[in-house]
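Posting this for the archive.
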Amino acid sequence: MSDPKFTIGEMCEMFDVTPRTLRFYEAKELLAPERVGQKRLFTKSDRARLKLILQGKRFGFSLEEIRQLLNLYYLGDQQTTQLTQTYQLGRERLAAMESQRDELNNAIEDLREQLLWGEKVLADRGVKLAAE
């Protein structure tokens, strides 16, 4: 019995993406569905790759980084290189995300302080501000 195949519509529904997105990933060599006439048929492997692509994008990896990591699957070393590279890139991305979060938290705190100062100045001048 052969592995199940999924149409572009089924893949779109499963992953909440558009057909255009799937065609884009195919053009970027991230996915390689089977072609039967005009139809694209996706395998379980394509489904797993799409899940990893979407997760990688959510974490902020570039499509090129994702493509390179996915291609390491085929080295024949039981995915050791793929896992090692993914781990290292993930650690770097996590550090960058934490730094961005810290910068954002500082900016939020600064803005709060400026708004409080503005509220006080306006209140001293008799200006009523709308309630939040």
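The first helix runs from residue 8 to 15. The CA atoms of residues 99 and 105 lie 10 Å apart.
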